[in-house]
Design a protein that fits this description.
Helix content is about 10%, strand content about 35%. The chain is mainly beta and about 150 residues long. The protein has one domain. It is globular, with a radius of gyration of 18 Å.
């Protein structure tokens, strides 16, 4: 068994992790970040499909898991590519779950090589997964004019 691949980490704008707020009037979530909105682990397992991917470094990514610890969040994501560009035999979620290789033993990660749909097109998730973290830079705040007096 090979050693697991160390996951790359990227620090990005914290607003992309925002969970948003439900708006009853509009019947949808308002203010949700694109990374949070792309969470698809449930949809992959149930439907073999993904929600709208987010873009990072000229590639499409899908959020497969989030961890929150107080104000801190991290997201595990896999790159999403058109199926025709995958060099290998893609498998469905069910095939991977039923295989003899446990998720923790797959060097590229559980979702690597998994066939999914986005819209009406076939795609494949490729690993290894990466971790996205909010940047540690403080977001600019508006100056209170009374503080200047």
């Amino acid at each position: 068994m090979s050693a697991p691949i160390a996951k790359k980490e990227f620090r990005i704008d914290p607003s992309r992790f925002e969970s948003g707020t439900w708006c009853h009037k509009r019947d949808k979530i308002i203010g949700e970040g694109d990374i949070a909105a792309s969470y698809s682990a449930d949809k992959i397992g149930l439907e073999g499909a993904v929600r709208k991917p987010f873009k990072w470094q000229n590639a499409m990514w899908v959020n497969t898991g989030m961890v929150s610890n107080g104000k801190s969040r991290s997201v595990e994501a896999y790159q999403l590519i058109p199926a025709k560009f995958f060099d290998g035999e893609p498998q469905t979620y069910g095939q991977i779950v039923r295989s003899n290789t446990a998720a923790g033993q797959r060097q590229e990660g559980f979702y690597h090589g998994m066939h999914v749909q986005h819209g009406k097109r076939p795609y494949v998730l490729i690993g290894p997964s990466v971790i996205f973290l909010p940047s540690e830079e403080e977001t600019p705040q508006q100056i209170n004019l009374l503080d200047l007096l």
